[in-house]
Fold each of these.
Amino acid sequence: MPSRLARPQAVFGLTCLAIPLFAQTPARPAGGTDAVELSPFEVSASAVRGYVASETMTGSRVKTPIVDLPYSVNVMTSEFLEDFGIFDLLDNVTHISGFTGLDIGGNFNLRGFSSSNQLRDGFFRLGRYGSSNIDRLEIIKGSSAAIYGRTSPGGMINMISKAPKDTASQKLSYNFGDFGTQRLTFEGTGPFFPGALGKTRYVFTGSHYQREFGQEFARNRNHEYYLALDHVFPDGSKLFFSAEYFLQIRHSPPSAVPLVTDQKGTASVNDDVAIGYAVNLGKINASGPNSELNRGNTGLTVGYDKKLSSVFSTRLAANTFQARRWDYNYVNQWVAFTINPAVATAPIRTARAAVPNRGRIFEDGGGFQGDLLAHYWTHGRQIEHRTLVTIDINDYYQWNPTLSYAPATNPDVVTWSTARFVNLDANWNPVGPIAYFPKRSKDSPGEVRTRDGRKHTTTRGGNFRQQSAFFGGDLLVFAGFRYDSVTHQHRDKLTAATAFTPFIPGYVVGQVVRREIDQFKPNVGVNYKLRPAFRIFANYSESYFLDQGDTALDIANTAYRPEIANGYDYGFKGTLLNDRLSYTVSGYYINRENVRVTDLEETPPGSGTFIDVTRNAGNQLVRGYEIDFNWQATDALSVLGSYGNVHSIYTDFGSSFPAAVGRPVQFIAPYNGSLSVKFSPVRGAVKGFSANVGVTFVGATPTDAPNAGDTYVTTPGTGVRVVSRSTYQWALKAPAYQLWSAGLRYQLPGKSATSHTFAINVNNVFNRHYFKAGSSAATRLRGEDRAVFFTYTLNHRGTKF
């Protein structure tokens, strides 16, 4: 493996109040108990009730009650994941309003926009996570997430790691069930070294997880290890350290469902219509046994926070990571095919890629975070203020070589050029045994490099945020800004120099392409308490986004610009029924600009000849509303629900495709949500028993770009573009679906420090057949059938400090 993967990163940091915690479901505190006064960067244990958290840090980079924020923050906790048997975070996590398409590569859809990067404990991350060491998923919605720098206009997801606790405990769980699922997880936490210099606590988690899929050959294996230590000094300051290792081996990953086009029995293409997807083929692996898609990550984080005085507190943090992705023969997905050809004897046929590839992506980097918080009063202690100043530094490096198995003349490739085609019957099932590429990458007589790029992006930024409370805290006013300076230094060793020449005269293949970008993004919001149990809020914020896929050729373009967005959040929050029912109703309106599109340009001017030119000049508009609530109906019965409505369209898709304006954005569900009920008696004969049932629902979701299937003609002289014919592929959707899940859990009674718990979970209770739009064509997968899982947990609880 190339030594570039191990390239060290110098990482330091200032963080006085970062490392977020998102809320709207129960979030575990970073410190476990309140044995010492918590810093402004640590959420208290009492902030958790049922599945709901009342405090967050992700929302504002400082501990803040969620009800006080002028925008929406949601949380999904580890308890929720455990109760519903969600072992893998890409398993239909659609419970949060406006949130779909989460995958292990870091992709997700939120509030009408797709994103390819996330946060882990407040630091930049490209996916690669397991569920065993995550305490909760926190989601800050809208452009307000720009307090962390670049972000999707829809918001940002932050994975919060488990933290050490004061009370010693050990837990060993074994899960097994359908699809060959087996998962063994250990978690231990508690005091590590109490002494005169303070107390040290630890948490360690280790997990091995494997499962198969509905497709032959396809299976996953996860290895997850995590260790965290914190030391609380006598003055209340804290030093924190964590180390993480994650490796996912995906053997023959599941294949996406292919497009089907009806030729209507004619030789003309003018009447062809895209009719849907061959969901049947979603049960069959296209790549075969010699295929893989693996991801790994190692990371280290160090943090220190301290209350400097009665006014000032600070937090410093540093992170470094090394990540990798490697695949072989993964691109051999099912290819789109046609039915009802003009000649009836022609078979229905699909295919796989002509030449298998071996792709590799090596990444490393790290970041610094420094936050300084001032908490003070003015006007005779009538007005309370919190002023936050933040420094962020992030460094990211990627090397992404891709190689073909061999030249097209290689005997293996020549044989495969025929074997890769598969004939289908009228129901789109293979008519005979399927041939697979027989060789592994190590058998190649000579690979051919097809991609070789280096990306180096450094971001230096800062954030200022002022929060002031007037009228005894009834009126909260937030205002601030974010400034970032981004340096790109990219290289491309394969693209011809002529592709760069229009932008960089005298360009030589492989030279460094450099670009500097500065961004200033303001935000302002208000939260007003009309009544003790009812608040209204409004917020305006701006953000920017850098696509991780941007290449040297992209940034060399003189028209290159980062995507930017501005958005409004508004709504109300409150409680009813003696504070047992809490709710948030919010609306939003977001404009996204500088989307990469294709424009038509007259070249040379006045010639009447038009060519396609790629520019960052498109626009996208999203508006919608969300409802989130939690009802503690009784001490034993709780109800959690969400609903999100999303209207996401392109308002400018480039002058080359004018008909795309007003069409919906691909992979964005128009609505989604969930309803969950948990019954957990706290006394009586059935104490120790709990039952939960839930349903998630996702609306019919567009699966293709808004210009897919359209053929245009250009009017000579004027450049006016008109659709001459269309297969209406852009109108295709993954049908709406509902999935029910249920769980039962029972802890054997006893007074011993050791307890035994047995559980059963059923996912997709009614065995609903469906397929997911995902967040890309590669994740357009057939949904999973009903699955039953059993769990045994051995838990030991020890002493406290």
Amino acid sequence: MEYLGEHLWPGRLGHFFVVLSFASSLVATIAFWRASKSTGASESASWKRLARCAFALDIGAAFTVFVLIYYILSSRYFEYNFAWEHSSRALSGKYLLSCIWEAQEGSFLLWTLWHCVLGAVLMIRGGRWEAPVMTVLSFAQVCLATMILGIYVLGLKVGLNPFILVRQLEAFRHAPIFQRADYLSIPQMQDGQGLNALLHNYWMVIHPPVLFLGFASTIVPFSFAVAGLWRKQYGEWTQAAQPWTLFSACVLGTGILMGAAWAYESLSFGGYWAWDPVENASLVPWLVMVAGLHTLVAYRSSGHSLRATYFFFFLAYGLVLYSTFLTRSGVLGDSSVHAFVDSGMNVQLLAFLLVFFLPALGLLIKRYREIPHIKKEESVSSREFWMFIGSVVLFLTATFVILLTSIPLFNLIFHGKRSLGEDAAFEYNRIVIFLALLLGLLTGATQYLKYRHTSKAMFLRKIATPTAIALIIAVTISWLGGIHYTRYGPGYLAAIHLALFGAVYGAVANAGYIWVGLRGKLRAAGASVAHLGFGILLLGVLLSSAKKQVLSYNTTGITVPFDPASKQDPMENITLLKSVRTDMGTYWATYLSNDSLDPAAQTRFFHIRLDPKDGRKGFDLYPYLMKATKGQEGFAFNPDKHHFWSRDIFSYVSAVDDALGEDTSSYKSYPVAVRDTVFYSRGYMILDSVVVNPREGKFRFGPGDTALLAAITVYGKDSLRYSAHPLLYIRDNRTYYVADTVFAQDLAVSLGKILDHGRIELLIKESGSLVPFVALKVLAFPQINLLWGGALIMILGFVMSILRRAGETRARSGSLTKS
């Protein structure tokens, strides 16, 4: 059958470039491998030229695939499943990139693109390590290319085809709609399913690319370590790998913090971190990478911990691949708000993990005895010893988190029913808080130690002042900061106070070291600045979580029957009736209005006014909800917050009047012309006017829109007069109806069809359930600015270290070239 209206050329061209990317990356892998194995300079250079050409072709093919997918989305070619499943006509252009990241195929493509960028830099800067390192990276490109091949081999599906048509999907192949040649003219195919409501946020545009650059970059230290074992040049690779390791830790950490900021701004679980399995899956590789970074620095300064560095680098990349398997296999579908559904690629994802991690681990075991190490144990008074201990603490933290995160997988394998219970966060916090204490102490004290040996008297003399200052600050915060209670008991409260001291100690000791130990030499202070930022970040986490306060205790006597799945406590969600000032403890809360600023996306903003009872200036909050998409029911509630220097007031709407139940009342139709009268049970109304494309007020329409705004006067039996302004408008060949409500009369008025003889259909509904209310959750996060400020300082420290180490590597490479 020849289908009408399909645009097939982008898909055919796109799939050709997917295959070309696979083939060229395979050729690059073989050629780089041969260049590494060749003994003659001429032969090696010849293979390297071929490998570079093949990888450059892979870069061109991968970016062309990306451009074609974006073209399909922007052109609204809904015959393609990528566009139909992940976008819609109502979606604004800025979120088209988000559609790519949302899809499994798109995220694999994003990963591929970052490998292309990293590979291009390595081919320019890699030097003598280019061939072996690029062999590993090119092979990763082969594996990633298979993820978007979308072909069948011996009956097994290999990858997901980003250019497959909706009618080619297995589930839809025999649907009656696709037995018609003109199926694209059917309304169901005129629009897509839309982007998930939770992803309508600017963070969705920038957070995934940064996070995936972090994921992709972990292969570079991994590849250097493999190359060192492969060539039996066990320690020579470490200097070239050090700037890359810093870069990977920096970017992956930045991506994780961006995700925390996104969660804080857009998710209604009330915070920046919820120990969600997908959050954990990104945190764990970062912890191990940072552990490897510290053992790498220790090796380069003392000769110790090279074996541990190999292990941590292999494990960090292995955990990236394991996290990919966890989040995309469907295993976490019931335990995470981020996880992908099962795409039928579990075997392929598991193979991706095993084909990298097992050979690398096997090579490490085989060459383990050959890896140089100093037989004499590190001195307990040496910096390298405590850096290794810190790395072990990071490793133990990662191990604990990934084991708890993997419980759904363990249940699936062993048919278990283990769970973390109702308070999953506490299961993590009760252990991690002690590990955080150790990390705070280690990041502070270790800076004052020297490599190989430190005089006890000198160490105590240098550390005494920052210790005393930290103790005074920590005690002051603990006593005057109001941390006197926790629902988890006195033991957990004591742990919080100890962890507070660790955080303050880490910050104060590193600040002191920059001033005293480095004499203010900022060029060499990257590590201390990063540790200083970590201490402040940790302090912000402890204060904002330990002192987090619910402000919205419900004293109205009106409780909302929440669904148990929402895990909402009705007593922590205050019920606000519209325009009724309500007592909310330290604040007066008033629900003023709600407005649909984007009816096409079905987004509603709620105007909430909070006035402090102590006479200070009040402020407005605008939490909003979006109608859920992608086959989900209900609404996605998005928070708003008001910033103070010492705290944030965080709020979100947890329930609204029309989200709780279905109104059984129906609209009645009345054909009317201007000045006609329509009676209802409590009075009558007159259609005063109908304005075409109004230019004043809150509505704004473009030249391609058609709009009708009615002005109606409502006369109630109570002798009062009311106004209503229902709206009908057409945009992008779709018709939208915006009703207006007269709450005092339990009346909703909407416009319907345009009739003949200058008449229009007026739709009127009377209902006693029109009294508007919201259930509001309000939280206070004290000192949360410490968290974000500490994060920025930590990232700055990483950047300073990257620039310094990269400069040292270039200088060394230049001196070797001259010699």
Amino acid sequence: MFAPTLTRLKALVFRRAVDAELDEELRYHLEREVERNIAGGMSADAARDAARRAIGNITVATERARDAWRWRLLEELGQDIAYAMRGFRRAPTFVITVIATIGVGLGLLVTVFTLFDAYVLRPISARDPAALYEMSWHSRDRAWHAFRAEQYERLRTTALGFSQTFAFQNLVTRINGRPMVGQLVTGNYFDVVGVPPAIGRTLGPSDDVAPDNGRVIVLSHETWRAQFAGDSSVLGRRVLINGVPLTIVGVAAKGFGGLSSWPYQFWTPLTMAGPLSGWTRINTILKTSENTHIVGRLAPGVGPEQVAARMRAWLRVETASRPSLERANDVMMEPRGTPIPLTPEIVGVFGPIAIAFGLVMLIACANVANMMLARALARQREIGIRLALGAGRRRLVRQLLTESIVLSIPAGLVGLLVSRAAISLGTRAMFATVPPDYAPYLRAVDLSADLRVLAFVLGGAIVAAVAFGLVPAMRATRPDVVRASRGDFDTPFRPSRLRNTLIVAQITMSVLLLICAGVLLRAARGIDRLDPGIRTSDVVQVEVLDRSRAKVLATLALEPGVRAVASAMHYPLDGLLPGLRVKAAGDSSVRVSYNIVSRGYFSAIGLSIIRGRGFTEDEARGGAPVALVSQGAATRMWKGADPVGQTISVADEVGGRMASYRTATVLGVVSDAAPGWIGMSPRSPVVYYPEPINTNGSAILIRVAGDAATMRDRLDRLMMAADSGSVQEIHTLSASLAVQSYPFRAAYWVASVVGVLALLLTVTGVYGVMGYVVAQRRREFGIRMALGASPVALVALVLRHAMRLAIVGFVVGGVFALGVSRGFASLLYGVDSYDPLGYTLGAAVVLGACFVASYIPSRRAAAVDPVEALRADG
């Protein structure tokens, strides 16, 4: 069974030895036949002739035996590779240019795929991660909900289809003054995910029995190495979290950072939620806070759809007593097998980046395709002779594609190196440019290249080889055999139309990327100059434990550098403020953002009261049904009428702190400000309701004298001295503004890099093609000059040809850019899809670059000596 395969492998590996054996065996059979003929009475010559007639043509028999013994396709592939390598040794500049061009384009795509792989495709370090699902739900008002801790206790005993479940809460805090992000988890957490300890032990059921009984902590491997230098004697050491001492009992296995894209730094029992959050009664968290996340492991034979159906029925009973709009409407089952589940929203995040980098790759392929066309045209005589000798067209196409693949493999290696360099540079740039207040929260995930990345590199290299090699190969193998074999390459053999199409495509994609980059850069400058409507330079925002609030406020009142202190349910620049529908005049409702703030909030952050008055202390303390509205809200709801004294009512069903404000009287109008996120217009309507400054759970805002960063550090020390562990987070408001604008700036930097690379590739492509066209038309230019054409006329001739292509590419690219920039404008505030300066700059850069790239070859055309040109081609 295996004998033929072994014979073929032997013939493939030991070709010369097998050929020698075959020749020796054929000679042996021939000599034996001659001996038999001589024994039968023939003469030596007659015996030899008869033996040759009996055996047949020796050469044909040899080839038949070789065909039976060998894999001809593999042999031909080896021959093609050897032939390609011999040809490439004679053209090192061509080889280096192709490898570098494809390597840069492929490197960008590999960079995006590496990020996509690390966050979306790579399984977490857990046992059977594909079976883990996190549950959440939507109410009828489309609001997202997690669970209350008490609900988990009831849910874990319900037959939903999970073999195991655990719960967790996220905790942002500080350890030794350094910001940390950890999780409060149930005692079976590590057992369910199946993660062993690196040293010590993990949490167990005995750590999660009753409130405040499990004062232990497990560190992540990264935190252990970074904060404790990998010291094994760390076990038994105590750390303070929010003033509570916790004993380190273990370190999690290397590579495990939780079930999220955000690597967590420690884990402690969920029963410590009350003490660590600063609440004096654990019932507060059990009954009011929906900050508990529940994850389950599917039982064998149970699908997520079955669990979702059972969960939906359970939630409808669980939320039946709530207001209509707050009742459960739908259940989400989010897979937790990877850091980020693969959803349409995630594809929407990675898609635009992949498309932009893909366009750069297409420009690179078009560039190389033009070079391959030029190289193939120079080999027309060789190809014509091979066709005349009987070579099949398919065989020649395969030979040319093999040459493309031989070039693409090292280009893939270059692309991998480019991606590694881009990832390293990008990571360093991110840590170096992010606002210092938030830099400690950043942690790099593992972005090493795994088998999926290597497979993507290989696949991308092969696809690129086909993309830039197939069309030139097809065109090059269709010449007139007689004319090509004698070296006559007149106009019918010049693939000018295809070459021009490739140039137009390059310019189109370059224009698209450059105009979009220009529009985004203009928007970036607008974002940097955007006035959020509040003062940020001298305001510090603090989040403190509820139990420490009174001491912190007393400390701040004694500090001479503090100019004003206020509180708010939400920071002014901490993400989009919550929204609801309110009714004013008439029956129509308006969607507004809202915040609940103390009396001094407006003066602390620089919001001026334009009309009416602000809250009084008694109104704030008593939760009076009054409100202030922004100018945008006043215009939207009363359309020029005086809003002071008007009544607004909440159209949605609300509870909790908003229950007191279902109907409120408008006391005044304040200036406009961004509704929590600078991506929204400052004119967005906002309504403010009152609260006392000592309200638990509200953030504290402090307007200071002098440098805000210096005062932040001073206030941090003072508050920690007043009550150790009281401060959970402290930042300057200007840092929050910088963090919000940072993603915009990062996107614009990436767009700029992509645009510049696209332009460089396009310029080199235009320059290379125009230089080749000039070389091919050298005889024509010589004739023109002999007939009286001036050098200026020849320069104009070449430039007209190039600029026609550039203008066509610009028009087509501009149309595409208009559509793409309109999409940006619908998503991002401050983007002008009709920005004339952006389009003008894009046109000027592309057309100018194409002009320069064409002018140099055109000068070469004007320098042609007509006598030498005609003699050389004569």
